[in-house]
UniProtKB/TrEMBL annotation:
Its EC number is 2.4.1.1. One of its GO terms (molecular function) is pyridoxal phosphate binding. GO terms for cellular component: cytoplasm. Pfam families: Phosphorylase. This is Alpha-1,4 glucan phosphorylase. Its cofactor is pyridoxal 5'-phosphate. Belongs to the glycogen phosphorylase family. Keywords: Acetylation, Allosteric enzyme, Carbohydrate metabolism, Glycogen metabolism, Glycosyltransferase, Phosphoprotein, Pyridoxal phosphate, Transferase.
Amino acid sequence: MGRTLQNTMVNLALENACDEAIYQLGLDMEELQDMEEDAGLGNGGLGRLAACFLDSMATLGLAAYGYGIRYEFGIFNQKVVNGWQVEEADDWLRYGNPWEKARPEYMRPVHFYGRVEHNPDGVKWVDTQVILALPYDTPVPGYRNNIVNTMRLWSAKAPCEFHLKDFNVGGYIQAVLDKNLAENISRVLYPNDNFFEGKELRLKQEYFVVAATLQDIIRRFKASKFGPSFVCFVQVAIQLNDTHPALAIPELMRILMDDEKLSWDTAWDITVRTCAYTNHTVLPEALERWPVDLFQNLLPRHLEITYEINRRHLERISALYPGDHDRLRRMSLIEECGQKKINMAHLCIVGSHAVNGVAQIHSDIIKDTVFKDFYDVDPQKFQNKTNGITPRRWLVMCNPGLAEVIAEPLSYLKSLLKFVDDDALIRDIAKVKQENKMKFAVLLEEQCNVKINPNSMFDVQVKRIHEYKRQLLNCLHIITLYNRNTNINIPIIWLSKMIFKCLSYQSSVVFIVGGKTKCLAR
């Protein structure tokens, strides 16, 4: 989500007025903005896409909630000390959060462990451990349209039910310690969105946000003009942002069947028409596959439901492709090779009415390779939604000079094509770019003690140092392009050794090629 102050001022058209007011007080607005803690509640593209969706939906006037976990410690801060990466805790709530409002009246219980009872009057999940989900609401304002949506984040709280016998047998201390263990669910964000970690705490987090959210959605639905009958529940749309909330599918089935006493077929029809799935990655190591043993222990009823979903799914596939046992193995929700695991991406596809990638090439790969079997069966499910961005945050805030130049002659970015040969506009844009480069040169000298020529060509990546972010590959690409366009060849082996050495010593890397042979690395 980033920082809220400037984004809110821009969306409410208050930026100039606030700037002037702060200036009159002898203060600096940029300094004030820098004091705000970054709400690092996501760990990469997943989190940023969700934030951009929230901004877009508010700006388009779509009634929507964004649900997540109120992590006490968000994405870690990265530093490089003596050539080694050091992660520092992101204690973003140390001074509180002025943008949020606790809503204890909407607190919801979330159940774990226990066992399942099958009785003539229905199925019950009993003897569970209960953790309370306390919601905190943050406003998400649309762009100059007087519309505000809500981001609701859940914080884990242990039920405070200490009995007198606990004092008598000395169990009070352990009861308090167990309370802290329960609240660990919302303590820390797992930092990787490109690698699956099959930890029990992570599965608890995923079910915690799903269970609390679905209770909240159903409460609001029943209070609306469409409730309490579930005939109109398809008015609700639940978008699964990757597989992390995949448990929404068996959880919604559990609520509809066990609590609302609907039949399997009715519950399944509602679930599929309600849920849609956004896939973010095709990397095998990033796809979630939860061990059945862990599932059985933590969520026994959901395992039963998932097995039944899989049984009915495989019956359908078997009827479409008689005797094709290899296809059944590939498309099963349960992977039988080695340790039994549940493939959460397969669960999302089977339990959703729409599946999309986040770029056209990504969506094509999904259809052609990773989920080809599923595409062959249900091609109508597969779509593409190219990642958009929040233009206010990424243009107005990051590059106000450029925003001011291009905003005046056009209302849509595609209108820029009319000005492709407009000398005056091109000069204005070049002037803004040069001013930005000069500001960056000053900043670099102040922070890294590196002096650069602002007339050089800049190639910039603003990312944390990580092997899959490919900073080294980008450096090599710069030199490749340079070698193609000059008569001076820089040896790639020598260069790669030099860049690697630089990456080992400095968290911010600057590589400049200017003139013909001048190279500087830090």
